[in-house]
Amino acid sequence: SDYSREPPRHPCLKINAKEPFNAEPPRAALVASYVTPVDYFYKRNHGPIPIVEDIERYSVIITGLIDNSKDIFMKDIWSLPKHTVTATLQCAGNRRTAMSKTRKVRGVGWDVSALGNAVWGGAKLADVLELVGIPKLTKSTPSGGKHVEFVSIDKCKEENGGPYKASIPLIQATNPEADVLLAYEMNGEPLNRDHGYPLRVVVPGVIGARSVKWLDSINIIAEECQGFFMQKDYKMFPPTVDWDNINWSTRKPQMDFPVQSAICSLEDVNHIKPGKITIKGYAVSGGGRGIERVDVSIDGGKTWVEALRYQKPGVPYIADIEANSDKWAWVLFEAEAEICQSTEIVAKAVDSAANIQPENVEVIWNLRGILNTSWHRVDVRLTH
Ligand code: MTE
Ligand code: MO
């Protein structure tokens, strides 16, 4: 593989793996703004960053179980209605390093910043699929369990040098309400190379692994994609399953992510003076579920106070689409506390379906180290 033409990256990023490039921003930078600046947005790759030189000749072929395959060019995408969707992309491996502390898991280590919130601009996949005669979802649309597969132009070693790929159900792809985008913009700027230039998929509310970057083709297929990242990775196994007794085919590929939160104004261990501190972080849930509550404890989880939640600064957040909240996006939270002894500070969130984060990582431990959504705990040690 060739890593000689990687794009420049911001020096603040913490590099978890160099080749392929995997990096996340420092905690405090992550929650400094509701919309994550592109430079600070985590970068999760499985191979070298591809280069698309000739944007006029770049096309995505739509093929598979349709009458006529069609090459879609950027001008075709640009001529469709442009939608902007504020959505949080989260890697299923977010917080993997902490899961490894109880029992070793396999995969790139991540702290709590393998996610970001961006304003994605692009065409709705449902509109693009209409160009090849696939109707939008209606209550009576038969999907026959079909999937829409996204294949990249990148090359990754897990696919034996083949391209990265993933799929989502056709009923989600053709549902305009699901807001699945073929995005060419991130925060109002053309996508940069790291994030999928010139065109990527964004599947809101679903683990990042399904939002395929550097799109090459779209295949309509009879059942879910058989690629490595769907079948041999990104599946949730119970804690009893380890590498010597794993049977991959017993589990479905992970799609929606569960409720998650983390404290970002503090590191794992903090040395502070007694007094007032502000506890800041993010909370997010998958599937379009909002955040109903964020609880913060300054005594290791014995007692709790409710944190203030917001998306737009100064506007209290309500988990309700009628209230104009961004349903696919995280909320930031903030709580003030008086610290007068060394202690453990904890955060946990509750989503709009009343799902709550698990108290301990042990009960959700899984060999691939995905979806560590256990209560986020940080230590504060007093200095006098
Ligand atoms: N698409 C391609 N082509 N190659 C990849 O390695 N990584 C996936 C997804 N799409 C990947 C990809 C994973 S696991 C995640 S979490 C997101 O992209 C990360 O997107 P980002 O780098 O824009 O943050
Ligand atoms: Mo990921």
From TrEMBL:
Keyword Cytoplasm: no
Names of the cofactor(s): Mo-molybdopterin
Name of the molecule in the record: Sulfite oxidase
InterPro entries in the record: Ig_E-set, MoCF_OxRdtse_dimer, Mopterin_OxRdtase_euk, OxRdtase_Mopterin-bd_dom, OxRdtase_Mopterin-bd_sf
Pathway stated in the Swiss-Prot or TrEMBL entry: Sulfur metabolism; Energy metabolism; sulfur metabolism
Taxonomic lineage from the root: Eukaryota, Viridiplantae, Streptophyta, Embryophyta, Tracheophyta
Superkingdom field: Eukaryota
Gene Ontology BP terms: sulfur compound metabolic process
Example of a GO MF term: molybdenum ion binding
Moybdenum cofactor oxidoreductase dimerisation domain span: 252-381
E.C. number(s) listed in UniProt: 1.8.3.1
CC per GO annotation: mitochondrion
The Oxidoreductase molybdopterin-binding domain, residue ranges: 46-228
Keyword tags: Metal-binding, Molybdenum, Oxidoreductase
